[in-house]
Amino acid sequence: MASQSSQSPNAKSPNTLPVKEAYDQWAATYDTDGNFLQALDSIMMDELLPRFISLLPPSPSIVDLGSGTARNTGRLLQIRDADVAGLDISEHMIEKGKSRCLDVWNSLPPSPRCHILAFKPCDISSTEAVGFYLAKGVISTLVMEHIPLENFFAVCHKIMAPGGILLLTNMHSDMGAISQAGFVDQATGEKIQTTSYAHTLSEVEEQITAKNFEILWKEERAVSEGDLEKIGERGRKWVGVKVWFGMILRKLS
Questions:
Q1: Which residues, in sequence order, are bridge partners of residue 141?
Q2: Whole-prediction pTM
Q3: Per-residue pLDDT reduced to its tens digit, 71-120
Q4: d(C-alpha 236, C-alpha 238), whole Å
Q5: Cβ neighbourhood burial of 203 (10 Å; 0-12, 13-18, 19+)
Q6: Do residues 61 and 134 lie in contact, with contact meaning Cβ atoms separated by under 8 Å?
Q7: Among 34, 40, 111, 138, which residue carries the largest CB count within 10 Å?
């Protein structure tokens, strides 16, 4: 879900809002505001989703934790007989996601296609709020930035079955040290930002061990000159900087 908001020394300070309020406002333009990190994440997910799906059992239950406007939830609909759930704190983002998934659903033949698709607005940083799923697979893309690590992995542990597979991506801490999630309100021109944690890989790996997951794959990604054609010119100032990392994990117990 992360975007990027950095400012010059003379710029007006952004208005900092709680995560739910910020993303409710952002929903209208989230998919069209030229977010280069989201574009890079989509490129990486082209590679990672097939790898994730290959590790799942037949007819899996899958949760998209922090589904937002369903940028990646829609890709799960083609999994035969899957039960897919999208969880997000923002009801406005979920409404956008429902519309996107309906379009994808209607474009797919009855088989292969997922069996059930449901969305639930809830505080995804709370183990009490998310409910109980025993998911065989969880994806969470550009979400962890907004949640304390202990909370994030506690929620993942709760909603996953033993042996379940977790695919996560996030803003790299090298980028987070100088920038954070934010956008410009198109109606007012005001810069909006929200809670953002620059989680380091070592901190993430500590929680992975503490919550009894194992790492199957991980990668850090810097922006290259060759990426700019696909991710846009807004990514140019980040060339050579690590801005993204991804992992595939297995829950051990």
A1: 169
A2: 0.93
A3: 999 999 999 999 999 999 999 999 999 999 999 988 998 888 898 999 99
A4: 5
A5: middle
A6: yes
A7: 138
